[in-house]
């Protein structure tokens, strides 16, 4: 319900930020991996512990790092892209 409210208001950046926070919390809890620095070492550890596709992990890390550094307002397509990338790792 809250997600729908953000979506209806067009606050895509807020939804993206919350999805990233939730995703990283899940990684910390499930795989006991530090999520402060998302670099090649993080990618390697997550791949080894999760068994998920390496390219999918690289993509989600790239998208998260881009969102963290970006000063542009995110659009709906950004939200869809990061949501799909996160879902590939968490399902």
What are the key terms here?
91 residues; mainly alpha; 77% helix
- Overall mean confidence score, pLDDT: 90
What is the chain-wise order of helices and strands? HHHHH
Q: State the major sheet.
A: none
In total, how many beta strands? 0
What characteristic shape results from the CA principal axes? Answer: elongated
**Tally of contiguous helical segments:** 5
Head-to-tail CA distance between termini: 22 Å
Radius of gyration: 13 Å
What structural category arises from helix and sheet content? Answer: mainly alpha
| Strand percent estimate | under 5%
Enumerate the spans where pLDDT stays under 50 for 5 or more consecutive residues: none
Proportion of helical residues: over 70%
Describe the structure.
- The longest helix is centred in the N-terminal third of the chain and has 20 residues, at 12-31.
- The protein starts with a helix and ends with a helix.
- With 91 residues, the chain is mainly α.
- The protein has five helices and no strands.
- It is elongated, with a radius of gyration of 13 Å.
- The chain has helices spanning 2-9, 12-31, 40-50, 54-69, 76-90.
- Helix 2 runs parallel beside helix 5 (76-90), helix 3 crosses helix 4 and helix 4 (54-69) runs antiparallel to helix 5 (76-90).
